[in-house]
Specification:
The protein is an all-alpha fold. 69% of the residues lie in helices and 1% in strands. It has a two-stranded parallel sheet with strand order 1-2. Pfam families: HTH_31 (PF13560).
Length: 411
């Protein structure tokens, strides 16, 4: 995405606004002022919704939308909410059918099938953080069907069967994550159960550890913090070094949400002592220092230790800001952790930071970001008279259309 093109789009938006104030324009198009401000400075690409509203208001004939589309032309095509809803429903139905068929059948697949599946898992893992979830679902879903079909129709004595089951489990795990971040937690749990069956069937420690971590995440976002912490601790039994820091981080964030200062700090110490993986493994991105700072600062802020948290969360945001390939979900969550730390010092800055996080996922709806943003907006409710807080709360009254797949709450 060219910086020159983004600057030209920003300049054109400023030109159209003319002497009209940003607040007045926001009221006229029923959008929030902070998004308009960032669009005019070129710090982020304006959302499709914003440019469509501006085009309609200024009667440009779609000029801004075309400029924006030119800038994102190299990205994967978007999937409409209705198409994605049908796709998700079909995949979920297939999960139930294929589970019944596993361990039966006759046909034997070729090694080329296995290499294709392994390549897909690796490619999706490597691009997961910078690709909209809606674009990944069809790719992962297609290969998951292939993998599960092979496993379900399989050749019990074939020596490649365990490898196919691991690949099928990795793809089911990826679908679990994708369903979760489109707001479908029930579908996410369905695929996680299937991934867990493959993990148990193969005894693969990497898949087993990853599945455990995702169960902790589902419990955490459901508000069951005690179970989230318990599951994360249980994951250590696999002794899988790649996930040691991640599982400790999941325990820390859950205990922080419970207000358990001693337990949370002990878990953070374990996280910081754990090895940092040098490269990603199939289906799971590696723990990183920036992500560790996000967890540490966010946990301290949950415990009310805002001054201590602030430089840590600021460091995490800076680390992601300076990466051209920063994973957008983690980048946005770093901003949300920083917002939580700012609650003790500057409510306006805290609200604006949440809005920046939402801007980052405006065209890539991500449930983890919207859920945390909703939580922070609720915490800021006593300050609803502050303009930035009022704008944020107004923005969160309606979840993005592409997240409205299930009844997942955002506030």
């Amino acid at each position: 995405m060219g910086q020159d093109g983004r600057a030209e789009l920003a300049a054109r938006i400023r030109e159209l606004r003319g002497d009209k104030g940003q607040a007045a324009l926001a009221a006229a198009i029923l959008h929030d002022r902070t998004a308009i401000s960032r669009a005019e400075t070129g710090t982020v690409l304006p959302s499709r919704d914003l440019v469509e509203r501006l085009d309609a208001y200024y009667r440009t004939g779609g000029e801004l939308g075309r400029r924006r589309q030119t800038l994102i032309g190299g990205q994967l095509p978007e999937v409409s909410p209705s198409d994605r809803r049908d796709l998700l429903a079909g995949l979920a139905a297939s999960a139930g059918e294929l589970t019944v068929r596993i361990r039966t059948g006759r046909t034997t697949p070729g090694r080329s099938d296995l290499l294709l599946l392994q390549h897909t898992v690796r490619t999706v893992t490597d691009t997961y953080g910078v690709t909209p979830h809606s674009a990944l679902i069809p790719v992962v879903g297609r290969h998951w069907r292939l993998a599960e079909g092979i496993v379900a129709d399989a050749w019990k004595s074939d020596r490649l069967r365990p490898a196919f089951r691991v690949a099928a489990g990795q793809l089911a795990y990826l679908l679990c994550r994708l369903f979760f971040n489109t707001g479908d937690t029930a579908g996410s749990a369905t695929f996680l159960e299937l991934a867990e069956e493959h993990a148990v069937g193969t005894g693969d420690p990497a898949l087993s550890s990853a599945v455990t971590g995702m169960w902790s995440t589902l419990h955490f976002y459901a508000g069951d913090y005690r179970e989230a912490a318990t599951v994360a601790v249980d994951g250590r039994r696999w002794g899988y070094a790649y996930d040691t820091a991640v599982l400790a981080a999941y325990e820390a964030r859950a205990l922080g949400a419970l207000g358990d200062d001693t337990g949370a700090m002990r878990a953070l110490e374990l996280m910081e002592r754990s090895p940092i993986p040098s490269a990603s493994e199939p289906s799971c991105e590696p723990y990183s220092t920036a992500w560790g700072m996000l967890i540490a600062g966010g946990t301290l802020a949950r415990l009310g230790r805002h001054e201590e948290a602030l430089p840590i969360t600021a460091g995490s945001v800076t680390a992601y800001d300076t990466r051209s390939d920063a994973p957008y979900e983690m980048h946005a969550n770093a901003l949300l952790a920083h917002s939580r730390a700012l609650l003790g010092a500057d409510i306006t800055a805290a609200a604006d930071t949440v809005s920046r996080a939402l801007d980052m996922v405006a065209d890539r709806p991500t449930y983890s970001v919207w859920a945390r943003a909703g939580e922070l907006a609720s915490v800021m409710a006593p300050h609803r008279s502050v303009q930035a807080v009022a704008e944020l709360r107004g923005r969160l009254r309606e979840a993005p259309a592409m997240l409205a797949l299930t009844a997942g709450q955002t506030s």
